[in-house]
Every structure is written in C-alpha cells, then in structure tokens.
Amino acid sequence: MNWRSLRWQIAVLVALAACAVTLAVGLLVHRSTYQRSISDGEGRALTALWTEVDRYRLTGETTAEQDPGVIPHQLLAQVRLTGQASTYYDKRRPEIPWMWAAQPLNDGVFAVQVDMGSEVRSLSALDRSIVKASLAVLAVIVPLAALAAELPNRRLRRVAGTARRIAAGDLDARILPRGRPGDEITEISVAVDSMAGALQQRLVSEQRFTADVAHELRTPLTGLVTAAELLPEGEASDLVRDRVRVLRTLVENLLEISRLDAGAERAETAAVPLDQVVEDSVRRTGLQADLTVTGAPVVRTDPRRLDRIIANLVVNAHRHGRPPVEITVTGTTIAVRDHGPGFPEFLLTNGPQRFRTNAAERGHGHGLGLTIATGQARVIGADLTFRNAPDGGAIATLRLS
Question: Which residues span the domain enclosing 60?
Fold first, then answer.
C-alpha cells in the first residue's frame, strides 16, 4: 500500500473531517449535559435548603450547616453580598463533588449540600460512550472512504499508465474515457487522447515526408552516381565523387529510418559468436578500436542488424569523440567508449534525434547514426543506452537479450 496515494489521502481527509465533526458534536453534547446536570443540582440543592428553612421555622430544628468554617467562602461572600439564596458547585474534591445552597437567616447563614457524584459519573459514562461510538464510526468510515476513492484512483492510474505508454513511443495507446461528461478525470482522459492523436498525426506526417523525400531522391541520385563515375580522373572529379557518396549515404540512411519508423523491419535471428561479430564489424568500418572480450559469449540475434549498430557506434565515436575508442564485450553487453567531450545533454535526456547534434565540440554530422542504431536495437529487442564517463568521454552500452 502506498500511503501517499490519492486513495489514502482522501481516506485521511474523511477521517479528519469525521473526527472534527465528532469532536464538535461531542463537545456540544458534553457541554449541554454538564449544564443540565448543574441546573438539576442547583434545583435539588435549593429545594433541600428551603425544606430545611421551613423545618427550622416550624420546629427550630435543622440539619443544615451553619458553621462558616465549613461552608465554602465563595458561597458565603456571595450570600452576604446579595442577601439572597445562592448556589455553589464545590469541585475541591473531584471524586466527591457537591452542590451547595445557602441563604441568610437570623443573622447567620443556613447551607445544605447535595451529592453530585451520580451526575459526574453519568457525564463520564456519556463521554466514554461518545468516544467508543466515534471510534466505531471511524472504523467503518475510513475503509469505506478508501474503497470509494479507489474508483477515481484506478481511473487516474489508467490515465498515468496510458501517458507513460505514449511517452515510451506507443502512440496508438488510448484511454477511451467511460466517465460522465464534465467529470474532471474524464476531461483529463479526453485531453490525453487528443494529445496522443495530434502527436501521432504529426509524427506520421513527418515519417511520410522523410520517406517521400528519400524515395524521390533515389532516382536523380542514381543518375548522379553514374555520371560521377564517368568523369575523367582528377582532383575535381574525386571531390564530386566524394560528395555524391555522402549524398548517397544520407539518402540510404533516410530510407532506413523511414522503414524503422513504419515498423516494417523484422529481425532474422541466429546464434552467433558475439566477439567475432563485433570484430568483423569494426574491421569493416576501417577505423581503429581497442577490443576487449571477456569469455566466449554466444547470443541469438540478427547479425546483420547487430553489425549495423556496432558500425554506427564506432563511426560516431570517431566522428564526434577522440581516440582511443574502446569496445568491451562482457557476456551479452557491448560498451563503446571514446575519450572526447561526451554526449550532449539533450541526447542524454531525450535520446538521439535526427538531424541534431547540438554540440559544435562533437564535430559535424546529420545526427542519423545513433538514431538508426537505436531503431535497429529496438528491432532485435536490445537495450541501447547512452551516458558520459566520470573522467570524460561518451559511453554507448548495448545490452542484448
């Protein structure tokens, strides 16, 4: 149980509100009962006093108290001040409370006392009953409040889960709210679904544009490649051929990204020795890298796509970092590290983004290599993460399943 969840917060608020209402009602009942007990005690004390006064006047005998040293001095002062009968609640001994009544008579003061113990015990019993009833009500209300809060809490968890799926790339995820119109959670659900739909539409439009541009460029590019090969040998021709090769690589990368975005790629897995695949991939790039392999790992994956991922990581390390480039193979994990300035902050936060490097110190490029590597890793079910080493340099880690 998560005590910080909305369900328990609502339950706590309901419990606090119930406690406040119970306390207010309990205080009112206690106060009202106390006042009624005092009023009844005063009435009984005055009745007893007048009975003793009448008896004294008729017979000259009385059991009333006449010793000023015994009568409470507050009552004496009040009677002498007003000259009329008065009452006083004596709480000097809480276990034996008395209600006094006195009045002046024959230059003296007659006083009687009435036991208030039964009233005090009744009031204490009432207080205990109120506390017990309050605890019983809380024992019922708090679970009911938690259960009642579970429905909106479950709906909010569903909204949060769908939002996380959308953030992870599942743009087909929808909440499909079933609540009543005007309900706040329903409004949030509708807003999230609308946001996902708009985002999906924009992303599909972007993917379609990329694919269309790449396809439209293939035809003139093919003619351009052919024409470049027919140029006479020379420095200018070599420069043209080099730029044509760069343009051809860019178009091929765009086509590959469009296929990855469309989900048209499927892995063809086979059991391959991981160290040999990595070594062959590095050799085909023609770049220098220090390879360290622990054990003789064998993994079931798509060797062609794995080769594409390793090649892109090594090329990216040389293009944007500084040597030495180190490749470490441990079990089914491959780490590629350079000793340059490290990955830019936006890449560490949001992942690779096409046509964005956003860091002059990491050289030049189109920002497609890592995007393709991430897409191919997703196709083969691998996890590709990026981080910066504490002592400098970028580290790309590929974990194969």
Answer: 6-65+114-137
